[in-house]
Amino acid sequence: DGSEADVTARTVFTVAPPGAAVVTADGVVTLAGGLAAGTQVVVTGAYTELGTTKTGTATLRVKAATFIGLSIDPPKISLARGQSVTARVFAHFANALVEDVSTAAALVWTMSPAGALAQSGRVFTVPAKAQYGGVEVTARLVRDGDERQVVMRLHIRQEGSMVNPGDFDESLLVDFNDLSYFIGHYGETSASPRWDSRCDFDGNNVIDLADAGSFVGRYGTSYAPTRAGIGEAAAVASTRGDPGQARVWLAGPTAPVQVGEVFELLVYAQENDPLAHGFRGGPLTVLFDPERVAYAGDFAPAEVLESPYLLFQEGRLLDDRIEELCGMTVLDGYGDGEPVLYARLTFTARQAGDLNFSLAPSSSGLILTPPAGKLTLTATDFVGLTLRAEPVLDPNDAVHMYAGLAAGWNLVGIPLTPRLQNAWTDRNGNPLSGLKFFRYDQVAKTYVPMAGEALEAGLAYWLLLDAQPANGVVLHGAIPCAVNAPGPGWSLYGHTQSDGGGCRGGDQVRHFFRWNSQNGQFDHCDSAGLALGEGAWHYQEE
């Protein structure tokens, strides 16, 4: 007749390629992890009515995470004639993913002044007769129609001039005096009256956390008067940037936590560089699901970061992450080939099920002692953690899990006396407050809606489900001590957990008719054929 009806719950879904997605009974499609960008996933739905089957398809294309920007390493460098630098470019995405795109075919390099440097791929060399001064090298990348760019600032210096990053007092040693000087300029911009561009290691005109990481990564460096910083730069270039140079991971409770429980996550770090002598900190991101967990209490970096990471403490608590959690130290020996505790975080479990926590890079790389210094973003392995949360059970509660429930009408028996609050949950303990129950009113000869907590043990009720429950249906309550036997005539009946599998009411002739949702009819059965949790129409002769 031209009308439309929602038949999602009665539709059979298939996916091609197999395993590329999961479709729930209510039609929610979840793509599998690890699918390459551009992969096409075809979801087919088949619906059968009165012997006729109709199908429909939907084609999905896997998109990469939203491309939000580029960063470059190094962002700023000073070279003499004949020296070269190998640039690395990283793409940043909205889900905190970082990808090394240094060799991507779509990456385009330009420089200003044009031709000021010799270029071979991502290696830039200062010519023997280059003019002294500044050169800007720009990298551009287009992803999914979005173009982003980043600039490396290079200064061509005169041969023999001393350029020792971090050595502000020119003592040839990056020491406490230089740390005090840097702290005095931390947070300044190029508009500040005391601006010193030597503290702006990445050349972005603000002395910020990234610059602090660059300085701390050089703390302790000793410069020889004759090498003009060249030897130190070469040592850094030979060791920094390889995957696995550092590892950061989460540790937490080994046993499941309960919903409402406050638990602690520990952030550990370790450096594995053969030339470094310890982990000095740096920024990272902690991601979590705000529907399942919440941060417990007020968040303050100074409260969560562990000693000795007491310098340049930062961190912001957002809805679904702790962003740029950072502390630094200039001490050696911490996390050198063995774990060091970096931070303690406290969360509250809000829902039962898997609690997933991820670690990801932040705005700049983590920091080791010289000569490794500040690492590239992809040189650290970040390892998350999955915990399990379980519902809080009343020790006086009994439970019954229903099997075989389907979308549409289900005739269910009530084997327990429902508890007063959250009597109906899924397998994970999450409340199912939207269940629709109906009892038969013999006087009015009609069905009346009922609250799930008001149902009576030993009776049966119709349960209307909009979709097949993905995580099951569980009844919580008490085992009834005594339940009256059904009287003569017709009534809705269900066994209780105190019946011992038999029918209440003695030896009278009884008939049971249980609902068959497959064919939409009632099947005759005896008491023994009626499972706990099944409902049936019961008839007793007068």
Structural class: mainly beta
Low-confidence stretches: 226-239
Radius of gyration computed on alpha carbons:
34 Å
Characterize the main sheet: 6 strands, mixed
Keyword list:
about 550 residues, mainly beta
Would you kindly provide a written description of the structure presented here, covering whatever features stand out?
Residues 226-239 have low confidence and may be disordered. The protein starts with 11 loop residues before the first strand and ends with a strand. The protein contains 4 helices and 40 strands. The chain has 542 residues and is mainly beta. It has a 6-stranded mixed β-sheet, covered by helices on one side. Strands 21-24-18-16-27 form a 5-stranded mixed β-sheet, with no helix packed on it.
Task: Give the topology.
Blueprint: E1 12-16, E2 21-23, E3 29-31, E4 40-49, E5 52-61, E6 67-73, E7 76-79, E8 84-86, E9 88-93, E10 98-100, E11 108-112, E12 118-120, E13 123-125, E14 133-143, E15 146-156, H1 176-185, H2 209-216, H3 230-239, E16 246-251, E17 257-258, E18 262-271, E19 279-281, E20 284-288, E21 293-295, H4 301-304, E22 311-317, E23 321-328, E24 340-349, E25 353-361, E26 367-368, E27 380-383, E28 385-390, E29 398-402, E30 408-413, E31 417-418, E32 424-425, E33 436-441, E34 446-450, E35 460-465, E36 473-478, E37 489-493, E38 510-516, E39 521-525, E40 536-540
Parallel strand pairs: 7-15, 16-27, 17-28
Antiparallel strand pairs: 1-4, 2-3, 4-5, 6-9, 8-13, 9-10, 11-14, 12-13, 14-15, 16-18, 18-24, 19-26, 20-23, 20-25, 21-24, 22-23, 25-28, 29-36, 30-35, 31-36, 32-36, 33-34, 33-35, 37-40, 38-39, 38-40
